[in-house]
Amino acid sequence: MKVRTPISRISLETMKLRTRSAWGRGILSIAIVALGALAMTLYAWTTWGQNKASHTRQVGRVQPGLDVLEGERFAPLKGRHVGLITNHTGVDFNGKSSIELLAHAPGAELVALFSPEHGIAGHADENVASSKDASTGVPIYSLYGEHLRPTAEMLRGIDTLVFDVQDAGVRFYTYTTTMAYCMEEAAKHNIEFFVLDRPNPISGDIVEGPMLDPDKTGFVGYFPVPVRYGLTIGELAQLYNTESHINCVLHVIPMKNWHRNYFYESTGLRWIPPSPNLRTMKGAILYPGLEILQNAGVSVGRGTETPFEEFGAPWINGEEIADGLNARDLPGVRFSNQPFIPVSGLYAGQHCGGVGIKVTDRAAARSMRVGLEIALLLQKKYPEHFDAAKTITLLGNEATVQDLKSDMPAQQIIANWIKDLNDFEVIRRRYVIYK
Q1: Structural domains of the chain sorted by starting position, each given as residue range(s) with its CATH number in brackets
Q2: How far is 403 from 410, CA to CA, in rounded Å?
């Protein structure tokens, strides 16, 4: 007979504890593995989300032509001897200048630099002399001084000209004329011409102002277009090249992600004042209409902290003029009494009765209408001081000046532009790159 050895209660309890312990350790291990996998999954999703967001931001922001060319590792310029027309506004998204980037572009040789009005640094308010770039040692030829266009000697050894300058979107802003003169010289010397496109800061879908009379072309008006032509500088180059019969070998490096209804604030790019007095976006919007007044004896804020955001003269009653302009209920702007003393420019050191302008709706504001209304009111109130005939220099349209002098209402003057603007629109549409 087989005798069964009894298991003590202590032994049974020990076995139970061991079983429970092993089971617990197994569950714990599984939990640790599961939590680890979950953490890795969450990390992966988070990283993907961050990368996706970063990629979206990179893709979504406006990329000027310089950034696009940089992304292509400057392939279109490989093997070329380059003359670069630029100034302080020619920078990429990270603030690197086109001078620095082209000096180190693989396969390209930077031969010379050319600067427009205000010089390579963009702060001169006078004629600029040629010099040498400290960082690269290449010569800087001024195109706002003894010469307004490059000479054959300046172009020696160059087979490609590259234009990278931020303009103002206004006919009488001289950077566009400098571009056109350089295109003409490029055509004469069998030099290819590249425009690195940049945004029109006051949008690409608003066209206003009179057409330039064909007999009034010059440095402040290269070709018959309206004061505010609604094109980027690359689009304008295409128009000039064909319509003015320049016929250079032209290449426009388009922007990415820019749309016609964008004002500069919509681009995500840092605003760099393209000239000493065009300091703010509000000033840039008002500039086309206010600038026409200066030749007629009105300070447009040069020598103050807010040029093109105010106007005045020692003979102006600011409160009276502001009230008169507000009574016209112009869309997108309001006026206020704002006296000032310019430290330089017209009426320097003199107390000016002034009017400040607030832009309440940049898309609705029409700067040429603003300029006309100011001119008409000043002519009516101060005929002995305000000379409408002198607005011809920048208006560039004799019929408009005569309409002003005859006290024609601003809306009627604008109506008189319609046929010319409709004809221009047919031409303009041929050169539109962006939607």
Answers
A1: 65-273+427-431 (3.40.50.12170), 281-396 (3.90.1150.140)
A2: 9
Burial, 274: exposed, middle or buried (Cβ in 10 Å; 0-12, 13-18, 19+)?
buried
Tokens of 350: 């003199």
What does the block give as tokens for 362? Answer: 């940049």
Q: What is the pLDDT of residues 36-94, one digit of tens each?
A: 433 333 333 333 333 333 333 345 799 999 999 999 999 999 999 999 999 999 999 99
Residue 415: Cβ within 10 Å count: 11
Both tokens assigned to 404: 């002003």
* 58 C-beta neighbours (distance < 10 Å), count: 10
Tell me the C-alpha distance between 414 and 418, whole Å: 7
Span 246-275, pLDDT tens digits? 999 999 999 999 999 999 999 999 999 999
Q: Which of 122, 170, 204 is nearest to 286 (CA)?
A: 170
8 Å CB contact between 258 and 435:
no
List Cβ neighbours of 148 (8 Å cut-off, separation of 6 or more): 178, 181, 219
Q: How does pLDDT run across 360-411, given as a tens digit for each residue?
A: 999 999 999 999 999 999 999 999 999 999 999 999 999 999 999 999 999 9
What does the buried/exposed string (b/e) look like for 374-412 if buried means 16 or more CB atoms within 10 Å of the residue's CB? bbbbbbeebeeebebebbbbbbbbeebbebbeeebebee
Q: Rounded to two decimals, what is the model's pTM?
A: 0.86
Find residue 358's DSSP bridge partners: 334
H or E element at residue 162: strand 160-164
For residue 145, which amino acid is it?
G
